[in-house]
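In this section we walk through a basic example: taking a raw amino acid sequence and producing a predicted 3D structure, encoded as discrete structure tokens. The instruction is simple. Fold the sequence below.
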Amino acid sequence: MKDKRVIKIKDPRLRKIRNEFRNLWSSAETVRWRGFGDEMEEIRFDKNDDHRILIEERSPENLKYYRSLQEAQQDLRENFRRSICMCYTCGRADLDMYYNKAYNAWWCVECVGMFRVMHPQMKEKYADKDPRFYDFDEGFGESFL
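The resulting token sequence is shown next.
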């Protein structure tokens, strides 16, 4: 895929279809995410006494499986956040999207516009500052220009 790409849909009917597909995809992702959570909840509590099982009380296999569920849940969420279904920054799903290959994620055109306006301002603001005392990622802002 190209380094930067904007997917714009002008027809309102096609936008509605796109948004419905994104909502459907989001619902499916939520169901899978909750499935991992439900499985983790079963591992977290003792079925007989209904008390929480401490990490120290778990078997190594049980703990390894629990951690694998956590990783799968986190990977699912991160992959969905990076998909075209939602903006990586604001989470909106009803706008046209912009792909930035440097970060392998999609942003809505409003956030991209904000980054394009803010980056020169931030660059000027922090030009004479010591980089140890501020959090300004110049590469991130420049990737949207």
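Looking at the output, two observations stand out. The radius of gyration is 21 Å. The mean pLDDT is 88. In the next section we compare this with other chains.
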